[in-house]
Amino acid sequence: MTFKDIFKKSFIQGFSRFDMSPTNMIVVFAISTVFAIYIFMAYRLLTRKTFYSKSFNISLAAVTMITTAIIITIQSSVVISLGMVGALSIVRFRTAVKEPMDLAFLFWAVATGIICGAGLAEIACLLALVLTIAFVVLDRIPVGRAPQILMVSTKGYENEKDLIETVKKSCPYYTVKSRNLSGGQANYVIEVRTNKAKEGDLISGVSALSFVTSSSLLAHDGEITV
Q1: Measured CA angle at 191 (ends 186, 197), to 5 deg
Q2: Could you tell me if 165 and 214 are in contact, meaning their C-beta atoms sit under 8 angstroms apart?
Q3: Which residue in 16, 83, 117, 123 is deepest, having the highest Cβ count within 10 Å?
């Protein structure tokens, strides 16, 4: 037997030490399933989006178990692992992840699948505990309120000064973002900052002006640009 044969045999055996008994595989997948369900529930409870995507949440659980299967397969044979790397390298995902929290949960699902597939359930449990505490604590940290959007329609531009004076009474900060004149009617978009106690005074004061035809006060999470 040549040195090349010895090195080749040693290299392949070094990557084939994973015990692929049915009992071990069932235990690993059971643990992965438990963590997948936990991630599913955590995503549902910790994310407060207006349009909750159940299909994305289900995909998080599926990604965890699929990744576990891939890691188990890779550990079983170096030849299979190289073939799987080549196969996965040609896959291209075109769906953009728009929410930062969705991206965090996606990485969490992938990491949990890798950790469970490697047989390190303790690390997966610690990761789940640390991330859950981090999400809850960071979500509770108070931050400055996002500005609100006041949309007002008036009869012409002549009364803009009176409108601004009314806004000043309830808002220490304001910025006129846009002015639009159409058919003799002026439309204003004003960014305002005010506390909740004065929101009613602001909208009622603006609506009470005789030249105002309509007014709306919109709240947002700071991600909207007008």
Answers
A1: 110
A2: no
A3: 117
Phi-psi category of residue 143: left, alpha or beta, with phi > 0 → left and psi -120 to 50 → alpha: beta
- Check the CA dihedral 221-224-225-226 and report its sign: negative
Residues in the chain: 226
Exposure of 96 by Cβ count < 10 A (0-12 exposed, 13-18 middle, 19+ buried)? exposed
HEC assignment per residue over 20-66? CCHHHHHHHHHHHHHHHHHHHHHHHHHCCCCCCCHHHHHHHHHHHHH
What are the tens digits of pLDDT across the range 83-93? 566 555 555 66
**pTM for the structure as a whole:** 0.60
Question: Which CA distances in Å does 30 have to 36, 66, 109, 113, 115?
Answer: 10, 13, 15, 12, 13
CA–CA separation, 167 and 152 (whole Å) = 11
Angle (nearest 5°) at CA 153 between 147 and 155: 145
Give me the amino acid identity at 222.
G
Question: pLDDT per residue over 37-53, tens digit each?
Answer: 999 999 988 876 556 77
User: What phi, psi does 53 have (nearest 5°)?
Assistant: -100, 100
* Contact yes or no for 205/170 (Cβ under 8 A): yes
Q: Residue 24: which region, alpha, beta or left (left: phi > 0; alpha: psi -120 to 50)?
A: alpha
Q: Do 190 and 150 form a contact (C-beta atoms < 8 A)?
A: yes
List CB contacts of 99: < 8 A, sequence separation 6 or more. 47, 49
